[in-house]
């Protein structure tokens, strides 16, 4: 009963906060984000381990930026760019996965618009570019010539796919007396749903029967930004 009362109180509190106490205005904001990304890559890890390389970590620090525009009718457009790097190593081998995601067509709605607190969500298309590399570790005393003259010591492959992204932002605004620009402290949570089949390649050569992964997965970030 106490839990039910708590959740009802929480919902009622958000409803009160959602009552707008400032005139509707258009504008734009930019945020720098840092947090964690958790892609779904178990089928890829199964193949990496079977080949004798260390399993990739499934959670990584990630960073990026978001650019958001608001209309007077609370319509939101958002563009984002994020990067993360997964890596695991042992005494002789390393596994690495780098991912860059771009989103330039996210649309949504601002449903909380207080003077100090705003909340909005967006949905849109995300493009992921992932590079996976597994290799033997080197010591620091190798020359470039000796490295190139040795046997190949690494494998690398790439994948490109599209995700449907859903993101929710909550921001707190700090005003300054002699400036119209506001400092923004916030948080964001996102989920990336794969829309296309994972296609693997090495340079321009296609690789068949590759693992199906979701390089987007889940992400949570803290944000710092400003109004423009």
Summarize the structure.
The protein is mainly beta. The protein contains three helices and ten strands. The chain is elongated and about 65 Å long.
Set down the secondary structure blueprint.
Blueprint: H1 2-17, E1 27-40, H2 42-50, E2 60-70, E3 75-89, E4 93-113, E5 117-136, H3 144-149, E6 154-176, E7 179-194, E8 199-202, E9 205-207, E10 214-227
Antiparallel strand pairs: 1-2, 1-10, 2-3, 3-4, 4-5, 5-6, 6-7, 6-8, 7-10, 8-9
Architecture overview:
This protein is mostly beta strands and 228 residues long. The longest helix is centred in the first third of the chain and has 16 residues, at 2-17. It has an 8-stranded antiparallel β-barrel. It has helices spanning 2-17, 42-50, 144-149; strands spanning 27-40, 60-70, 75-89, 93-113, 117-136, 154-176, 179-194, 199-202, 205-207, 214-227.
The fraction of residues assigned to DSSP E strands is over 45%
Q: Give the CA-based shape.
A: elongated
- Quaternary status of these chains? single chain
**Secondary-structure element string:** HEHEEEEHEEEEE
Instruction: Report helical residue fraction.
Output: 10-25%
Number of domains: 1
Arithmetic mean pLDDT: 86
Structural class: mainly beta
Spans of at least 5 consecutive residues with low confidence: 1-20
The third-level CATH topology is: Porin
Major β-sheet strand ordering: 1-2-3-4-5-6-7-10
Give the name of the CATH architecture: Beta Barrel
Largest sheet: 8 strands, antiparallel, barrel
Distance from N terminus to C terminus (CA atoms, Å) equals 46 Å
* Number of separate helices: 3
Please count the beta strands (DSSP E, at least 2 residues each): 10
- Using the coordinates above, name the CATH class: Mainly Beta
In angstroms, what is the radius of gyration?
22 Å
